[in-house]
Amino acid sequence: MATNAARLPWYKELSGAQIRGFWAAWMGYALDGFDFVIITYVLTNIEQEFHLDLVTASTLISAAFISRWIGGAVVGSIADRIGRKQAMIAGIWLYALGTFLCGFAWNYWSLFAFRLIVGLGMAGEYSASATYVLESWPKRIRNKASGFLLSGYTVGSIVVSLIYPFIVTHGGWRWLFYLGIIPVFVTLYMRTNLPESAEWDKAKERGNTAKGISFFQLLSGQWLPVLLTIIFFIFSAFMMNWPIQSLLPTYLKTTGFDPVGVGQIMFLANFGYLLGTLWAGFLGDWVGTRRAYIYTLLVSLVLIIPIFWLGHSAILLLGALVFLLEFTSIGISGLHPKYMSEHFSTEVRGAALGVGYNLGALGGAVAPILGTALASQIGLGNALAALTFFWTLVVIAIVASNLPGRVSRRATAAIAEFSDDTEQIDETHNPQPAG
User: Fold this and answer.
1) 3-class secondary-structure state, position 434
2) What was the pLDDT predicted at 425?
3) Are 210 and 81 in contact (CB under 8 A)?
Protein backbone atom coordinates (compact mmCIF):
# COMPACT_ATOMS: atom_id res chain seq x y z
CA MET A 1 0.00 0.00 0.00
CA ALA A 2 2.77 2.44 0.94
CA THR A 3 4.66 1.64 -2.26
CA ASN A 4 1.61 2.20 -4.43
CA ALA A 5 0.83 5.47 -2.65
CA ALA A 6 4.37 6.67 -3.19
CA ARG A 7 4.00 6.12 -6.93
CA LEU A 8 0.91 8.28 -7.21
CA PRO A 9 1.27 11.83 -8.50
CA TRP A 10 1.38 13.98 -5.39
CA TYR A 11 -1.94 15.71 -6.09
CA LYS A 12 -3.78 12.38 -6.22
CA GLU A 13 -2.84 11.70 -2.61
CA LEU A 14 -5.17 14.47 -1.46
CA SER A 15 -8.82 13.94 -0.57
CA GLY A 16 -11.60 16.42 -1.25
CA ALA A 17 -11.65 17.43 2.42
CA GLN A 18 -7.89 18.05 2.41
CA ILE A 19 -8.18 20.22 -0.69
CA ARG A 20 -11.10 22.24 0.73
CA GLY A 21 -9.24 22.74 3.98
CA PHE A 22 -6.15 23.90 2.13
CA TRP A 23 -8.03 26.46 0.05
CA ALA A 24 -9.80 27.88 3.09
CA ALA A 25 -6.49 28.28 4.93
CA TRP A 26 -4.88 29.64 1.76
CA MET A 27 -7.60 32.27 1.46
CA GLY A 28 -6.93 33.27 5.05
CA TYR A 29 -3.25 33.71 4.21
CA ALA A 30 -4.06 35.71 1.06
CA LEU A 31 -6.25 38.13 2.96
CA ASP A 32 -3.65 38.23 5.72
CA GLY A 33 -1.04 39.29 3.16
CA PHE A 34 -3.40 41.92 1.77
CA ASP A 35 -4.15 43.39 5.18
CA PHE A 36 -0.60 43.36 6.47
CA VAL A 37 1.35 44.93 3.60
CA ILE A 38 -1.05 47.83 3.01
CA ILE A 39 0.94 49.95 5.45
CA THR A 40 4.14 49.65 3.39
CA TYR A 41 2.43 51.23 0.37
CA VAL A 42 0.84 54.18 2.13
CA LEU A 43 3.60 54.97 4.61
CA THR A 44 4.55 58.21 2.86
CA ASN A 45 0.86 59.26 2.70
CA ILE A 46 0.50 58.67 6.44
CA GLU A 47 3.79 60.43 7.07
CA GLN A 48 2.47 63.55 5.33
CA GLU A 49 -1.03 63.54 6.86
CA PHE A 50 0.13 63.00 10.45
CA HIS A 51 3.31 65.11 10.04
CA LEU A 52 5.75 62.32 10.91
CA ASP A 53 9.38 61.78 10.01
CA LEU A 54 10.34 58.56 8.21
CA VAL A 55 11.78 56.82 11.28
CA THR A 56 8.62 57.50 13.33
CA ALA A 57 6.36 56.44 10.47
CA SER A 58 8.29 53.18 10.11
CA THR A 59 7.30 52.26 13.69
CA LEU A 60 3.77 51.75 12.34
CA ILE A 61 5.18 48.79 10.41
CA SER A 62 6.87 47.62 13.59
CA ALA A 63 3.70 47.90 15.70
CA ALA A 64 2.13 44.76 14.27
CA PHE A 65 5.31 42.82 14.97
CA ILE A 66 5.41 43.93 18.59
CA SER A 67 2.03 42.37 19.42
CA ARG A 68 2.41 39.25 17.30
CA TRP A 69 3.99 37.00 19.91
CA ILE A 70 1.04 37.59 22.26
CA GLY A 71 -1.42 36.63 19.52
CA GLY A 72 0.73 33.62 18.68
CA ALA A 73 0.79 32.47 22.31
CA VAL A 74 -2.94 32.93 22.90
CA VAL A 75 -4.36 31.72 19.58
CA GLY A 76 -1.69 29.01 19.28
CA SER A 77 -2.65 27.67 22.71
CA ILE A 78 -6.30 27.69 21.62
CA ALA A 79 -5.28 25.67 18.56
CA ASP A 80 -3.57 23.08 20.76
CA ARG A 81 -6.41 22.89 23.27
CA ILE A 82 -9.67 23.09 21.29
CA GLY A 83 -8.59 22.64 17.67
CA ARG A 84 -6.90 24.25 14.70
CA LYS A 85 -10.08 25.34 12.90
CA GLN A 86 -11.52 27.48 15.69
CA ALA A 87 -8.14 29.13 16.19
CA MET A 88 -7.94 29.98 12.47
CA ILE A 89 -11.30 31.71 12.63
CA ALA A 90 -10.34 33.70 15.74
CA GLY A 91 -7.12 34.89 14.13
CA ILE A 92 -8.86 36.04 10.95
CA TRP A 93 -11.48 38.01 12.90
CA LEU A 94 -8.78 39.83 14.83
CA TYR A 95 -6.63 40.93 11.91
CA ALA A 96 -9.63 41.90 9.75
CA LEU A 97 -11.05 44.07 12.53
CA GLY A 98 -7.68 45.70 13.20
CA THR A 99 -7.13 46.54 9.53
CA PHE A 100 -10.62 47.98 9.14
CA LEU A 101 -10.11 50.21 12.17
CA CYS A 102 -6.84 51.54 10.71
CA GLY A 103 -8.94 53.35 8.12
CA PHE A 104 -10.54 55.41 10.93
CA ALA A 105 -7.27 56.41 12.63
CA TRP A 106 -7.19 60.08 13.65
CA ASN A 107 -3.54 60.36 14.68
CA TYR A 108 -0.31 58.41 15.03
CA TRP A 109 -1.17 56.71 18.32
CA SER A 110 -4.61 55.52 17.24
CA LEU A 111 -3.11 53.99 14.10
CA PHE A 112 -0.35 52.41 16.18
CA ALA A 113 -2.96 50.82 18.48
CA PHE A 114 -4.98 49.42 15.57
CA ARG A 115 -1.79 47.99 14.06
CA LEU A 116 -1.23 46.15 17.34
CA ILE A 117 -4.60 44.42 16.82
CA VAL A 118 -3.57 43.46 13.28
CA GLY A 119 -0.46 41.82 14.71
CA LEU A 120 -2.45 39.84 17.28
CA GLY A 121 -4.69 38.36 14.61
CA MET A 122 -2.21 37.60 11.88
CA ALA A 123 0.08 35.82 14.35
CA GLY A 124 -2.68 33.50 15.48
CA GLU A 125 -3.91 32.88 11.96
CA TYR A 126 -0.40 32.05 10.74
CA SER A 127 0.21 29.31 13.30
CA ALA A 128 -3.31 27.85 13.27
CA SER A 129 -3.54 27.68 9.48
CA ALA A 130 -0.04 26.25 9.09
CA THR A 131 -0.61 23.47 11.63
CA TYR A 132 -4.05 22.78 10.16
CA VAL A 133 -2.74 22.20 6.63
CA LEU A 134 0.52 20.46 7.55
CA GLU A 135 -1.26 18.03 9.85
CA SER A 136 -3.83 17.26 7.16
CA TRP A 137 -1.50 16.55 4.21
CA PRO A 138 0.57 13.36 3.66
CA LYS A 139 4.06 13.53 5.14
CA ARG A 140 5.99 13.21 1.91
CA ILE A 141 4.42 16.34 0.39
CA ARG A 142 4.40 18.60 3.42
CA ASN A 143 7.02 20.91 1.92
CA LYS A 144 4.54 21.51 -0.89
CA ALA A 145 1.80 22.09 1.66
CA SER A 146 3.99 24.66 3.37
CA GLY A 147 5.12 26.45 0.21
CA PHE A 148 1.70 26.41 -1.43
CA LEU A 149 0.07 27.79 1.72
CA LEU A 150 2.54 30.67 1.99
CA SER A 151 1.84 31.54 -1.65
CA GLY A 152 -1.52 32.85 -0.45
CA TYR A 153 0.23 35.63 1.44
CA THR A 154 2.01 36.69 -1.74
CA VAL A 155 -1.22 36.72 -3.74
CA GLY A 156 -2.64 39.14 -1.18
CA SER A 157 0.47 41.29 -1.57
CA ILE A 158 0.13 41.24 -5.36
CA VAL A 159 -3.50 42.36 -5.15
CA VAL A 160 -2.41 45.36 -3.08
CA SER A 161 0.24 46.30 -5.66
CA LEU A 162 -2.38 46.13 -8.43
CA ILE A 163 -5.11 48.16 -6.76
CA TYR A 164 -2.87 50.58 -4.84
CA PRO A 165 -2.48 53.19 -7.62
CA PHE A 166 -6.23 53.27 -8.37
CA ILE A 167 -7.51 53.23 -4.77
CA VAL A 168 -5.06 55.79 -3.39
CA THR A 169 -5.42 58.12 -6.38
CA HIS A 170 -9.23 58.12 -6.38
CA GLY A 171 -10.21 57.36 -2.79
CA GLY A 172 -7.22 58.07 -0.57
CA TRP A 173 -5.07 55.78 1.55
CA ARG A 174 -7.81 55.00 4.10
CA TRP A 175 -9.85 53.02 1.58
CA LEU A 176 -7.16 50.34 1.37
CA PHE A 177 -7.73 49.68 5.06
CA TYR A 178 -11.53 49.67 4.75
CA LEU A 179 -11.22 46.75 2.34
CA GLY A 180 -9.51 44.79 5.11
CA ILE A 181 -12.87 43.73 6.56
CA ILE A 182 -13.41 41.27 3.69
CA PRO A 183 -11.75 38.28 5.47
CA VAL A 184 -14.59 38.13 7.99
CA PHE A 185 -16.86 36.68 5.31
CA VAL A 186 -14.42 33.81 4.66
CA THR A 187 -14.89 32.62 8.23
CA LEU A 188 -18.60 32.02 7.61
CA TYR A 189 -17.63 29.28 5.15
CA MET A 190 -14.91 27.90 7.40
CA ARG A 191 -17.20 27.44 10.40
CA THR A 192 -19.65 25.20 8.56
CA ASN A 193 -17.67 23.42 5.84
CA LEU A 194 -14.26 22.45 7.22
CA PRO A 195 -13.32 19.35 9.21
CA GLU A 196 -10.73 19.53 11.96
CA SER A 197 -7.07 18.67 11.29
CA ALA A 198 -6.83 14.88 10.96
CA GLU A 199 -3.63 14.65 13.00
CA TRP A 200 -5.03 16.81 15.79
CA ASP A 201 -8.22 14.71 15.86
CA LYS A 202 -6.14 11.53 16.20
CA ALA A 203 -4.09 13.10 18.96
CA LYS A 204 -7.30 14.07 20.74
CA GLU A 205 -8.56 10.48 20.55
CA ARG A 206 -5.29 9.30 22.13
CA GLY A 207 -5.46 12.01 24.78
CA ASN A 208 -2.35 13.72 23.40
CA THR A 209 -3.70 17.22 22.87
CA ALA A 210 -2.85 20.03 25.27
CA LYS A 211 -4.34 19.51 28.74
CA GLY A 212 -3.63 23.05 29.88
CA ILE A 213 -2.11 26.10 28.26
CA SER A 214 0.46 24.80 25.79
CA PHE A 215 2.41 28.06 25.87
CA PHE A 216 3.52 27.22 29.40
CA GLN A 217 4.53 23.72 28.30
CA LEU A 218 6.90 25.34 25.83
CA LEU A 219 8.73 26.92 28.74
CA SER A 220 9.57 23.48 30.17
CA GLY A 221 13.04 21.99 30.03
CA GLN A 222 12.25 19.79 27.03
CA TRP A 223 10.95 22.44 24.66
CA LEU A 224 12.49 25.74 25.71
CA PRO A 225 15.93 25.24 24.07
CA VAL A 226 14.25 24.18 20.82
CA LEU A 227 11.93 27.17 20.95
CA LEU A 228 14.83 29.57 21.46
CA THR A 229 16.71 28.27 18.41
CA ILE A 230 13.57 28.59 16.27
CA ILE A 231 13.07 32.16 17.51
CA PHE A 232 16.65 33.00 16.52
CA PHE A 233 16.18 31.39 13.11
CA ILE A 234 13.01 33.35 12.36
CA PHE A 235 14.48 36.58 13.74
CA SER A 236 17.42 36.18 11.36
CA ALA A 237 15.09 35.41 8.44
CA PHE A 238 13.08 38.58 9.08
CA MET A 239 16.23 40.65 9.41
CA MET A 240 17.23 39.20 6.04
CA ASN A 241 13.93 39.91 4.27
CA TRP A 242 12.23 42.87 5.90
CA PRO A 243 14.67 45.68 5.21
CA ILE A 244 13.73 45.29 1.55
CA GLN A 245 10.20 43.94 2.08
CA SER A 246 9.12 46.92 4.18
CA LEU A 247 11.18 49.77 2.73
CA LEU A 248 11.56 48.97 -0.96
CA PRO A 249 8.48 51.06 -1.95
CA THR A 250 9.92 53.98 0.03
CA TYR A 251 13.35 53.50 -1.58
CA LEU A 252 11.80 53.48 -5.05
CA LYS A 253 9.91 56.71 -4.36
CA THR A 254 13.08 58.43 -3.12
CA THR A 255 14.92 57.47 -6.33
CA GLY A 256 12.31 59.06 -8.58
CA PHE A 257 9.60 56.44 -9.20
CA ASP A 258 6.00 57.65 -9.29
CA PRO A 259 3.15 55.54 -7.79
CA VAL A 260 2.64 53.71 -11.10
CA GLY A 261 6.33 52.81 -11.31
CA VAL A 262 6.37 51.69 -7.69
CA GLY A 263 3.31 49.54 -8.34
CA GLN A 264 4.94 47.92 -11.37
CA ILE A 265 8.17 47.07 -9.54
CA MET A 266 6.30 45.79 -6.49
CA PHE A 267 4.05 43.68 -8.70
CA LEU A 268 7.15 41.99 -10.14
CA ALA A 269 8.59 41.63 -6.65
CA ASN A 270 5.48 40.00 -5.26
CA PHE A 271 5.07 37.80 -8.33
CA GLY A 272 8.62 36.57 -7.75
CA TYR A 273 7.71 35.92 -4.12
CA LEU A 274 4.64 33.96 -5.23
CA LEU A 275 6.50 31.73 -7.68
CA GLY A 276 9.34 31.36 -5.18
CA THR A 277 7.09 29.91 -2.48
CA LEU A 278 5.61 27.42 -4.96
CA TRP A 279 9.06 26.42 -6.21
CA ALA A 280 10.30 26.09 -2.63
CA GLY A 281 7.62 23.48 -1.96
CA PHE A 282 8.71 21.34 -4.91
CA LEU A 283 12.41 21.83 -4.19
CA GLY A 284 11.98 20.98 -0.51
CA ASP A 285 10.22 17.69 -1.28
CA TRP A 286 12.87 16.91 -3.90
CA VAL A 287 16.18 17.65 -2.18
CA GLY A 288 15.11 18.09 1.45
CA THR A 289 14.08 21.15 3.43
CA ARG A 290 17.54 22.19 4.60
CA ARG A 291 19.23 21.81 1.23
CA ALA A 292 16.45 23.84 -0.37
CA TYR A 293 17.19 26.70 2.02
CA ILE A 294 20.94 26.62 1.46
CA TYR A 295 20.94 26.35 -2.33
CA THR A 296 18.33 29.07 -2.76
CA LEU A 297 19.89 31.58 -0.39
CA LEU A 298 23.35 31.15 -1.91
CA VAL A 299 21.86 32.19 -5.25
CA SER A 300 20.16 35.21 -3.65
CA LEU A 301 23.47 36.61 -2.41
CA VAL A 302 24.62 37.53 -5.93
CA LEU A 303 21.45 39.55 -6.58
CA ILE A 304 21.45 41.92 -3.61
CA ILE A 305 24.11 44.51 -4.46
CA PRO A 306 23.21 45.14 -8.16
CA ILE A 307 19.64 46.12 -7.25
CA PHE A 308 20.83 49.25 -5.47
CA TRP A 309 23.29 50.26 -8.19
CA LEU A 310 20.50 50.89 -10.67
CA GLY A 311 18.58 54.14 -11.01
CA HIS A 312 14.97 54.67 -12.06
CA SER A 313 15.98 54.76 -15.74
CA ALA A 314 16.75 51.01 -15.73
CA ILE A 315 13.25 49.93 -14.74
CA LEU A 316 13.21 46.67 -16.73
CA LEU A 317 16.53 45.40 -15.37
CA LEU A 318 15.66 46.54 -11.87
CA GLY A 319 12.32 44.77 -12.08
CA ALA A 320 14.01 41.55 -13.22
CA LEU A 321 16.55 41.65 -10.39
CA VAL A 322 13.91 42.41 -7.77
CA PHE A 323 11.80 39.54 -9.15
CA LEU A 324 14.72 37.11 -8.81
CA LEU A 325 15.65 38.31 -5.34
CA GLU A 326 12.10 37.84 -4.09
CA PHE A 327 11.91 34.45 -5.84
CA THR A 328 14.95 33.23 -3.92
CA SER A 329 15.48 35.16 -0.71
CA ILE A 330 11.84 35.63 0.26
CA GLY A 331 10.25 32.76 -1.67
CA ILE A 332 12.14 30.24 0.44
CA SER A 333 10.16 31.47 3.46
CA GLY A 334 7.43 29.21 2.11
CA LEU A 335 9.24 26.41 3.93
CA HIS A 336 9.23 28.15 7.32
CA PRO A 337 6.07 26.41 8.63
CA LYS A 338 7.38 22.96 7.65
CA TYR A 339 10.86 23.65 9.03
CA MET A 340 9.49 24.84 12.37
CA SER A 341 6.72 22.25 12.71
CA GLU A 342 8.97 19.23 12.48
CA HIS A 343 10.70 20.19 15.72
CA PHE A 344 7.56 20.04 17.91
CA SER A 345 4.88 17.48 18.81
CA THR A 346 1.14 17.88 18.27
CA GLU A 347 0.19 19.04 21.76
CA VAL A 348 2.47 22.10 21.61
CA ARG A 349 2.85 22.68 17.87
CA GLY A 350 0.26 25.44 17.54
CA ALA A 351 1.74 27.49 20.38
CA ALA A 352 5.28 26.68 19.23
CA LEU A 353 4.68 28.10 15.76
CA GLY A 354 2.71 31.01 17.17
CA VAL A 355 5.33 31.99 19.73
CA GLY A 356 8.47 30.90 17.87
CA TYR A 357 7.55 32.52 14.59
CA ASN A 358 6.14 35.69 16.06
CA LEU A 359 8.82 36.38 18.64
CA GLY A 360 11.31 35.81 15.86
CA ALA A 361 9.25 38.13 13.69
CA LEU A 362 10.32 40.97 15.95
CA GLY A 363 13.15 41.06 13.46
CA GLY A 364 10.54 42.60 11.20
CA ALA A 365 10.02 45.33 13.79
CA VAL A 366 13.74 45.97 14.13
CA ALA A 367 14.59 45.81 10.42
CA PRO A 368 12.76 48.92 9.12
CA ILE A 369 13.87 51.04 12.08
CA LEU A 370 17.48 49.86 11.78
CA GLY A 371 17.32 50.29 8.02
CA THR A 372 16.12 53.89 8.20
CA ALA A 373 18.56 54.73 11.00
CA LEU A 374 21.48 53.23 9.07
CA ALA A 375 20.28 55.04 5.95
CA SER A 376 20.97 58.37 7.61
CA GLN A 377 24.64 57.40 7.64
CA ILE A 378 25.20 55.51 4.38
CA GLY A 379 22.04 56.05 2.32
CA LEU A 380 18.86 53.97 2.15
CA GLY A 381 19.97 51.74 -0.73
CA ASN A 382 23.31 50.87 0.88
CA ALA A 383 21.62 50.22 4.22
CA LEU A 384 19.10 47.80 2.71
CA ALA A 385 21.81 45.96 0.77
CA ALA A 386 24.14 45.62 3.78
CA LEU A 387 21.47 44.33 6.16
CA THR A 388 20.08 41.84 3.65
CA PHE A 389 23.50 40.45 2.71
CA PHE A 390 24.69 40.01 6.30
CA TRP A 391 21.55 38.32 7.59
CA THR A 392 21.36 36.02 4.58
CA LEU A 393 24.75 34.64 5.64
CA VAL A 394 23.43 34.17 9.19
CA VAL A 395 20.39 32.18 8.01
CA ILE A 396 22.57 29.97 5.81
CA ALA A 397 24.83 29.26 8.80
CA ILE A 398 21.89 28.31 11.05
CA VAL A 399 20.40 25.89 8.53
CA ALA A 400 23.71 24.41 7.35
CA SER A 401 24.77 23.69 10.93
CA ASN A 402 21.34 22.18 11.67
CA LEU A 403 21.18 24.23 14.86
CA PRO A 404 17.50 23.57 15.73
CA GLY A 405 17.94 19.88 14.90
CA ARG A 406 20.95 19.52 17.15
CA VAL A 407 19.15 21.17 20.03
CA SER A 408 15.95 19.17 19.50
CA ARG A 409 17.56 15.72 19.61
CA ARG A 410 16.44 15.29 23.20
CA ALA A 411 12.85 15.56 21.96
CA THR A 412 13.32 13.13 19.05
CA ALA A 413 10.93 10.50 20.37
CA ALA A 414 8.11 13.01 20.74
CA ILE A 415 8.42 14.43 17.24
CA ALA A 416 9.40 11.33 15.25
CA GLU A 417 5.86 10.78 13.97
CA PHE A 418 5.82 14.18 12.29
CA SER A 419 9.34 14.76 11.01
CA ASP A 420 10.31 13.25 7.68
CA ASP A 421 13.28 15.51 7.02
CA THR A 422 16.11 14.27 9.26
CA GLU A 423 18.81 14.21 6.64
CA GLN A 424 22.28 15.55 7.41
CA ILE A 425 24.05 17.88 5.00
CA ASP A 426 27.03 15.57 4.66
CA GLU A 427 25.18 12.32 3.98
CA THR A 428 24.62 10.82 0.53
CA HIS A 429 21.28 11.91 -0.89
CA ASN A 430 19.55 10.70 -4.03
CA PRO A 431 16.59 13.00 -4.69
CA GLN A 432 13.47 11.59 -6.25
CA PRO A 433 10.91 13.91 -7.88
CA ALA A 434 7.59 13.98 -6.06
CA GLY A 435 5.52 13.41 -9.12
Assistant:
1) coil
2) 40
3) yes
